[in-house]
Amino acid sequence: MEFSLAERPIALSDRRWPDAGVTRVPFWVYTDVALYEREQERIFRGPSWSYVALAAEIPESGDFVRTSVGDVPVIVTRDRKGAVHVVVNRCAHRGVVVCNAASGNATTFTCPYHQWQYASDGRLLGLPFKKGVGGHGGMPADFDNAEHGLQQLCVIERNGVVFASFDHGLASLEEYLGPTNLGWFDRVFDGRPLRVLGYQRQTVPANWKLMFENIKDPYHASLLHVFLVTFGLFRADNPSKTQMDATGQHSVLVSQRSEQREVTGTDDIKRVRHDLVLRDPTLLDPVREFPGSATVVMQTIWPNLIVQQQSNTLAMRQLVTRSVDEFELHWTYFGYESDDEEMTQRRLRQANLMGPAGLVSIDDSEVMRLAQQGAAVGQHHEALLEMGGADLDDTDHMVTEVAIRAFYDHYRTVMEL
Amino acid sequence: MTQSAPARSRTSWGPLDGGSVRELYDDYAALLDDGHYEAWLDLFVAGATYIVTARENIERGLPLATIRCDSRAMLSDRVDALTSTQFFARRIARHVITAIRPVGVDAGSVDVTANFVVFETLVDEATRVHSAGTYADQVVVTDEGPRFATKLAIYDAPLVPTSMIVPL
Fold it and tell me: Which of A89, A123, A156 is the last residue of a domain?
């Protein structure tokens, strides 16, 4: 009797990307635990700007929010002088989580275990019994507080959006995004003060890259999202374009809505409902608020952010990786401080489209779960990305997978695959 | 947000009969879980608001909801999406509603709080708790019996497991 070695785990060093290049994605990129660890090191703790918060979430001195960079828990703080800091939420002593509240106001953080106390910027301010008690114990004489603070990340802020990096030698955000993607970023973040409207969060049992693929894929949006197509918010025949930065790591998908109507572009879409009408039309009453004709702008910023503008619903979708087969999606919805009450209500109503109960985005979380299930049992197989050809160039239509190809082109470079 | 009242100062059911309110919540759970959405919609008055939000938004004073319907018609649009346009894996939901209590009373209405737990069972998976939280509702007297004028479902855990398909 022969024994099969086929099911033995394959070492990362033995992994080979398919010869066809980025028109193929091997399913092990969604399931290999060692690859996930390398992603944490090279991508999330590497040379990348991770989105961590909106400045409007921490407007006052002492305000903080808790979040994650990759799977590392961090605290985003504003110190007494108004400067923003991002520090790892892990005591330098025994690794205990220092800050347990999701948000709040505090000028110091004290570990609950042995009362080590830290400043907003992570500096160790002091610890009990440092000099011992009654001549006994205490820290060594050469113990230096300055060497035992909370790990600090490099912080950058642009027009109210805060990014952080474990790499302290990274290029500016402007250089990182490139001129085209910076332009789209500045379209929403134009310097007007933002108003945070609230949060939606969900756990998705899928690899984090499937989320990026989903947003970089206009092909699915006109097929899977019957609600969008039915009401003309997104469809294959709408004017649209996909634009990448020079590396392929960031991209933007731009489109404009049309009216609900029958056209040839929906012929292939079996599930479209021409008979459906909204009983309460105020659910969808978008108004133009940005220059230009685009009504949908979905921007993916490497490695953890999607900036969403669908009609008047604006949100940061932050990816938090949890394991090779699970990520969290944190949605922070916002408007502008200058919005009137009518606009705020419009944004709040249009939020029905998105999030874990979204009239549209439910389709995505459900499909990503099924994609992960398929990948898990397809270790020797690969996904096909040939829609629109094999190139990596900007396109001016929706029937393409080019932005996913560009993403994996960059991914392979960073990951040396 | 309506706070639950201490037991000693328990509010009366006022214009409503406590038993009929219990029946309203029982019908709510049974009709949702059995997928009888049209009948479920009839438990709301035409001008009813239906809002589902995470507790963190309430605690931080933020207006965003996960589901926001400003009218029964908008809730009906959501049911249309659920039954005809949305894609999701088949699942069974079970609403368990307890601790139904009056916390405020007016001429034709009563503010009611209750606890809910929703279990979710997906094909090929074990049953799991999908969500737990509280309702802060306003129930009004109508010719057809008590009906919801407002329903606010506040779920405790910020993270929704994958999707919220069936309303809470």
Answer: A156
